Amino acid sequence: MNHILLIDDDDKVSEMLTEYLTSEGFRITSALNAHEGEVAISNGSFDAVILDVMLPDMNGLEVLRRIRNTSSVPVIMLTARGDDVDRVIGLEMGADDYLAKPYYPRELLARLRARLRREPRNDQAKADHLATGELTLSILHREVSWSGVPFELTATEFNMLATLMRAEKVVVNKDDLSMIVLGRRREQYDRSIDVHAGHLRRKLAAATSDHMEIETVRGIGYRLKLRP
FRET partner for 182 with CA separation of 20 to 30 A, picked from 23, 92, 121, 157? Predict the structure, then answer.
């Protein structure tokens, strides 16, 4: 049973979502503010976090920043409809996906299940170890390193890197990346994949001293490139 942390200050919405997601087979811990959410994270282990941007005691983006300081747990942000700034900032800070309010609980369920499907399964053991030059990645252990030195990625960044490593020198188009990494079709003007790729590019450059590059193939997608 997947354990989900729901951080939303609307007690009626939280109660409704808890009942709905519980009926779908999830275990839910509910927090009505940022403080309760942080206490829950420090005292428990979660498979995913559903995080509202608008909280009474702290901006949800700050909560996301604090989560990312210690954990790569998948985070789905809930934002006000039309608030593109919060969505882009959230993705830049490491959110794995977002959903605009108001939303249908069934859509949130679909996003949540898609996100959890991106996590490793036991039958992936045969394809566990990936390597490109000095870059190595273990699917089951969720570890990535350069020349034996590990570095941190969010869950979405990790899965994107694994996808690009499997493709080797082949370009992976954005539509395929959206389905594989986010578990959903890429919508028109949706820049989620671009934002995640940009974040991954910066982390790879820092960890590999610019020896590994996420190359943009204009109008198509991305590929991993080893530089001398």
Answer: 23
